[in-house]
Design a protein that fits this description.
Blueprint: E1 8-14, H1 21-29, E2 36-42, H2 49-56, E3 61-63, H3 73-82, E4 88-91, E5 97-98, H4 102-112, E6 116-126, E7 132-137, H5 140-146, H6 153-163, E8 174-177, H7 194-202, E9 207-219, H8 225-228, H9 233-247, H10 254-290
Parallel strand pairs: 1-2, 1-4, 2-3, 6-9
Antiparallel strand pairs: 4-8, 5-9, 6-7, 6-8
Helix pairs in contact: 6-9, 9-10
């Protein structure tokens, strides 16, 4: 451990995550960057999640006391981040993993640019069994805009709005500067777009850095929250981007608006198809295991 290196807080919100939580925690514990704490915010799980976390026995893990009743996504994420003591914060959902070298690379970038609010990397997409679906996803257009340097919020917003999607990716791909996090942390109007909304509000307090490396794995399963919310994908994105671009004076032209609408529709149907395919893979694997 290098003296005076910043403490990184890894916040892991979890609800009934027994199937994957140990793999997720191991991916953080095994990072070459060691000056970190792991905060597990368990939202009243009814499976063996808490027992599995306690069994790891790493002194850097803090398992928050269970709430008396389920809090839901917004409040559980917020209590996890509120418990963070680090200068830098990363939120990792309980079924995702950090790839080797993730923290070392992202901390190095944040230290090189002390006014940056966050750094985002590319990510790998895997299935329930960890098998590769997409080797590297995200950030290409933003990486070209950034050219290796910081990129302003307006440029991030315009690029995401034109693409009709969250180009920065899922939370495991993003490392925040804690001082840039907004209050309140999350806008409860949003569910599916809660992550891109958080990123854009953080960027009111600094620029974004683009890490071209693949630093995390995002797992697609039929039972995850994203699968349950896939019906909200298109509707929330349309409302969100219309509101945020108008309020920031970055409204798009007619052609861009038409393209954005078509892209959102295509992505919505594409996501539905992916989750059907994932469910078939899971069912096939379950049948094969029983045979």
């Amino acid at each position: 451990m290098i003296p005076n290196e910043p403490l990184v807080s890894i916040v892991i919100p979890v609800l009934n995550g027994a199937q994957f939580i140990q793999e997720t925690l191991a991916s953080v514990i095994d990072q070459s960057y060691e000056h970190l704490e792991l905060i597990v915010a368990d939202d009243a799980s009814t499976d063996t999640t808490r027992e599995l976390v306690e069994a790891i026995g790493d002194s850097r893990i803090r398992l928050l006391s269970p709430p008396e009743q389920r809090l839901g996504l917004h409040a559980n994420w917020e209590r996890g981040v509120a418990a963070a003591r680090g200068e830098l914060v990363k939120i990792v959902c309980h079924d995702d993993v950090l790839l080797p070298g993730c923290l070392a690379a992202q901390v190095r970038l944040m230290e090189a640019h002390p006014t940056a609010a966050l750094v985002a990397s590319r990510r790998r997409i895997v299935d329930h069994a960890g098998r590769m679906i997409i080797r590297a996803r995200g950030l290409r257009s933003l990486a070209r805009k950034a050219g290796g340097g910081p990129i302003e919020r307006t440029a991030v917003l315009k690029a995401c709005a034109r693409a009709g999607t969250n180009l920065l990716g899922e939370p495991a791909s993003v490392l925040f500067r804690r001082s840039a996090l907004p209050t309140p942390l999350l806008d409860r109007r949003w569910t599916y777009v809660v992550d891109i909304d958080l990123y854009l509000r953080c960027l009111q307090n600094g620029n974004a850095l683009i890490d071209p490396g693949v630093r995390a794995s995002f797992r697609l399963t039929s039972g995850q929250l994203s699968a349950q919310l896939v019906g909200l994908h298109g509707s929330e994105l349309r409302v969100f981007f219309k509101e945020v671009t108008s309020s920031q004076g970055t409204a798009l032209g007619t052609a861009d608006l038409w393209l954005r609408t078509m892209r959102i529709l295509a992505q919505s149907w594409g996501r539905r198809g992916i989750y059907v395919w994932i469910r078939l893979r899971e069912n096939h694997r379950g049948f094969a295991n029983r045979a």
